[in-house]
TrEMBL record:
One record GO biological process: 2-oxoglutarate metabolic process
Family: Belongs to the class-I pyridine nucleotide-disulfide oxidoreductase family.
Annotated positions binding FAD: 51, 114, 142-144, 309
EC numbers for this chain: 1.8.1.4
Gene Ontology terms: cellular component: cytoplasm
Record NCBIfam families: lipoamide_DH
GO molecular function ontology, one term from the record: dihydrolipoyl dehydrogenase (NADH) activity
Miscellaneous comment in the UniProt entry for this protein: The active site is a redox-active disulfide bond.
InterPro entries: Class-I_Pyr_Nuc-Dis_Oxidored (IPR050151), FAD/NAD-bd_sf (IPR036188), FAD/NAD-binding_dom (IPR023753), FAD/NAD-linked_Rdtase_dimer_sf (IPR016156), Lipoamide_DH (IPR006258), Pyr_nuc-diS_OxRdtase (IPR001100), Pyr_nucl-diS_OxRdtase_dimer (IPR004099), Pyr_OxRdtase_I_AS (IPR012999)
Stated name of the protein: Dihydrolipoyl dehydrogenase
Length: 463
């Protein structure tokens, strides 16, 4: 086998595989090293399986609630084994699709653990054998792995991370989730819909604390109404065996409480994955476990770059891919940049939540004068048709120039609709430029036009 390439990428997640395909398309002789399934966390243990489970569980809920559309389905049930099979099949199809793209674009896939050596070579170890490969440039894209808080009882049986939760063969009767971030609340909605008694224990004063306050308040209300118990400003002290259950002991408002559940999910964040990545004597500059890079994704070692969850910044698949494309272009001699201030943040709950760019609060902190336009979904025709009339679309624009600075939405299809605002913010479009585009009727997307109209002079479908 050839052992000299223009580029070797270690890790075939959405950062690495996208970088490799882009580099190959631009004429670089490229290899990717991957020690598990192609597609990384995203396709196999993250975005895709999580959204498949959200889709199946939402469908189950929707059918149960379909009487309001005149449909009666008296005996609705699910087969969890088949839900898991559908989820795995979806991941497999996408992973195989990426392998085909590698083949089609002439990317060499090297199966095994990739290690960056002091000499700049990359060794690949598989089945006890190690082979050395060489390249002009190396991209580290080994992603992240679930984090566990170091508390007593963290190793007890039935304490799981997202990786193991995906593999559980039955729906837990009760599930206590430590961490009310995006991953925590998404799993809470899945298992609540499938019949688990779900509790969320969050150390911060609000759930999805990295997003706008209004989202946290609304989502908390909706989840509580569905029967999910939520404890905020609650610090987990320890986990204990309680018969055949696990007791989670936490302090809330200075009082100690204990709640028992069949399973405990640790959803407290993710840490960079550098297992097996560095050979003897390789000392890259690191900060809190993450590889330090400059604006061009260059590490402290010549010809070695890093992207995705492995480096500082948001840990999202689309951010990793955007970094991968930008870096591949640069390595192929294209003068490319990536604007990481316009990474959309999404939560796939019901209703969905999505945000991009600046919030009104953030603008205030930075003394930027803004105008906002908000449209409530109860006045949107499509939302009334589908009875999804909860939520809103909000636009933040500069008060004088009317340049669109950001948008936040909580409604059906918010995660799809946010794309329009990503393009607008990245290209510094104004409210009037965005309004030149016509939105089809009846669509949820009309709410985008109405929120923009609210700034331009007044939304049409409100008094
Ligand atoms: P990864 O996807 O982690 O890929 C790294 C790859 O490198 C892996 O395949 C790994 O096996 C391989 N590897 C590691 N070390 C080596 C080595 N030494 N040699 C060879 N191979 C190696 N993001 C979103 O944008 N939207 C979502 O909806 C979303 N949902 C999520 C849901 C869950 C439950 C989780 C856990 C994550 C979710 N994420 C989501 C985050 C997203 O999955 C990550 O941000 C993304 O996968 C990071 O991409 P990456 O390429 O940096 O790394």
């Amino acid at each position: 086998m050839e052992n000299k390439f223009d580029l070797i990428v270690i890790g075939a997640g959405p950062g690495g595989y996208v970088a490799a395909i882009k580099a190959a398309k631009l004429g670089l002789k490229t290899a990717v090293v991957e020690n598990r399934e192609v597609g990384g966390t995203c396709l196999n243990r993250g975005c895709i399986p999580a959204k498949a489970m959200i889709h199946a569980s939402s469908l189950y809920r929707e059918i149960q609630e379909s009487e309001r559309f005149g449909i009666t389905a008296p005996t609705v049930s699910y087969d969890y084994g088949k839900i898991l099979a559908y989820k795995e099949d979806t991941s497999r199809k996408l992973s195989q699709g990426v392998e085909q793209l590698f083949q089609g674009n002439g990317v060499t896939l090297l199966n095994g653990v990739g290690t960056l050596e002091k000499t700049g070579a990359v060794t690949v170890t598989s089945g006890g054998e190690t082979t050395s490969f060489y390249a002009d440039n190396v991209i580290l894209a080994t992603g992240s792995k679930p984090l566990c808080i170091p508390i007593q009882g963290k190793d007890l049986p039935h304490v799981v991370t997202s990786d193991e939760l995906f593999r559980l063969e039955k729906v837990p009767e009760s599930l206590l989730i430590i961490g009310g971030g995006v991953i925590g609340v998404e799993f809470a909605t899945v298992f609540e819909a499938l019949g688990s008694k779900v509790t969320i224990v969050e150390a911060l004063p609000r759930i999805i604390a990295n997003m706008d306050k209004e989202f946290s308040q609304n989502l908390k209300m909706i989840l509580k109404k569905r029967g999910i118990d939520i404890h905020t400003s609650a610090t987990v002290l320890r986990l204990e065996q309680d018969g055949d259950q696990l007791a989670c002991v936490f302090s809330e408002k200075d009082a100690e409480q204990s709640i028992s559940a069949e399973y405990v999910l640790m959803a407290v964040g993710r840490c960079p994955n550098t297992d097996g990545l560095f050979g003897d004597g390789v000392e890259l500059e690191m900060e809190r476990g993450r590889v330090v890079v400059d604006a061009a994704f260059q590490t402290s070692m010549d010809y070695v770059y890093a992207i995705g969850d492995l480096i500082k910044g948001v840990q999202l698949a689309h951010a990793a891919s955007a970094q991968g494309i930008c870096l591949a272009e640069r390595l192929a001699g294209v003068d490319a940049t990536v604007d990481l201030s316009v990474v959309p943040g999404c939560v796939y709950t019901n209703p969905e939540i999505a945000s991009v760019g600046m919030t009104e609060e953030e603008a205030k902190v930075q003394n930027i004068p803004v105008k906002t336009g908000k449209f409530i979904m109860s006045a949107n025709g499509k939302s009334l048709i589908t009875m999804e009339e909860r939520g809103f679309v909000k636009v933040v624009a500069h008060a004088e120039t009317e340049e669109v600075l950001g948008a936040q939405m909580m409604c059906a299809r918010a995660t799809d609709m946010i794309g329009e605002f990503g393009t607008a913010v990245a290209n510094r479009l104004t409210v009037h430029q965005m309004l030149k585009g016509m939105r089809a009727h009846p669509t949820y997307n009309e709410a985008v036009g109405e929120a923009l109209e609210a700034i331009a002079g007044g939304a049409i479908h409100v008094m």
